[in-house]
Amino acid sequence: MIRFSHIYIEEDAYRYPTTTKILAKYPNSILIKIQNYKNIFNRSNQNFQEQKNSVKLILAVKKDNFYYKGSEVVNSYGFTNFYYNTLILNCVYNCEYCYLQGMFNSGNVVIYVNIEDFFEETKKLLTDNPTYLCISYETDLLAFEDLVSYTSSWIEFAREHSNLIIEVRTKSNRYNLLQKIQPPENVILAWTISPDEIIKKYESKTPTLNRRLTDIQSALRDGWKIRICFDPILHVKDWRKIYTELVEKTFSVLDANKIFDISIGTFRINADYLKKMKKLRSNSDILHYPFERMEKLSVYPETKTNEIIEFMINQISKYYNKDKIFPT
Q1: Is 90 exceeded by the pLDDT of residue 2?
Q2: Cβ pair 44, 101 in contact under 8 A
Q3: DSSP readout, 202-263?
Q4: What is the pLDDT of residue 323?
Q5: C-alpha–C-alpha distance, residues 28 and 11, integer Å
Q6: What is the mean pLDDT of the chain?
């Protein structure tokens, strides 16, 4: 569990059970009462990367915008009703390419403690048509599960609402915290996997490939719907070799017949976020690549993107049904 030397708490947050449970786990942390989390989290002249060296926790009450329309840079898998929510802001990890460092001023973590309000507002989304909801969008929700059991809570919420499909995206190896749960049909556990070379160089603090694959193997054995995400694929030296080895290793460990589907995508990012990230990481080779501008996004040149996607589809389809591979 993450250590927090200081915890900022909105006055309204004290009345929620989630706050009580979290504070009980940090009896030695310094507690600071605040009026509005935005006064701490959104203030200017913060350094995201410096704060990552000593992350503080902020407990807040979400008052509006309990869900958002899904982003164009994320695959909707054919769903018209495609949304995401933000139960937690920021991540336990610190991947070099992560867009959160360009999106937020602060590297600190915000947990919205009023999960009950999220549930009530989500019910309003549900219609006769299935609603697809990503709940691990601006964080790695499963990586926080030992601190706040939001993944488990949303799985049980989904079990009671058959027209809701939720995706939990993660790089963690915390599946053991879900292992006692009977998997519902409308929950997808989606693991992002990367070559070890990429993990060591660019995915700071994340579990190794072996640990992720072991977790996926356990989840498949237990009957969960599993999505494998080769995303983002980074254009680095010897990328063909290292991603070929990644695909080979993945399917030497996992039973391809049990995998629900696979997504692939090259690195793409909001251009304004990238500009900010370059200032934070002036020596980053992957962020200072000569990207092209496509509307609001910075992307690899179209020929390079197509080359990478086609290459990955060809490699993966040696082991897996091509019709269930979704490029972004």
Answers
A1: no
A2: no
A3: HEETPPPHHHHHHHHHHHHHTT-EEEEEEEEEP--TTHHHHHHHHHHHHHHHS-GGG--EEE
A4: 96
A5: 20
A6: 96
Q: 242: pLDDT confidence band, cut at 50, 70 and 90? A: very high
- Going by their DSSP bridges, the two strands 94-95 and 30-34 should be labelled as unpaired
DSSP-based three-state secondary structure for 30: strand
**Structure tokens, 151:** 């993944």
CATH of domain 6-327: 3.80.30.30
Residue carrying structure tokens 């697809």: 132
Paired tokens of 295: 């509307």
User: Residue 223 CA to chain centroid, in angstroms?
Assistant: 22
Residue 290 corresponds to which tokens in the numbers above? Answer: 């000569």
DSSP calls for 251-304:
HHHS-GGG--EEEEEE-EEEHHHHHHHHHH-TT-TTTTS--EEETTEEE--HHH
pLDDT digits (tens, 9 = 90+) for 23-39: 999 999 999 999 999 99
